[in-house]
Fold this sequence. Notes:
By secondary structure, this protein is of the alpha+beta class. It has one helix spanning 17-29, and strands at 4-14, 35-46, 51-65. The chain has one helix and three strands.
Amino acid sequence: EGDFKVLTSEISVQGSFIKLVTLLDTLEHNTNLGRVSSTSFYTYDDNKLKRKILILKIILQNIKSNKIADL
């Protein structure tokens, strides 16, 4: 117990639905940034641009060992 540490990162990106899903697929299958542990899509109204903006929030987790490897 206590030999591992969970590192959590949060990323928020905006774009079109197809581009966001493509990014998510890349993160899940083709990178070593960590395991995708949670995702959520949401929109907000940009009154300046007079349109809705789509945001993807991604939570990534890595598990790191606290032990130093024996030589």
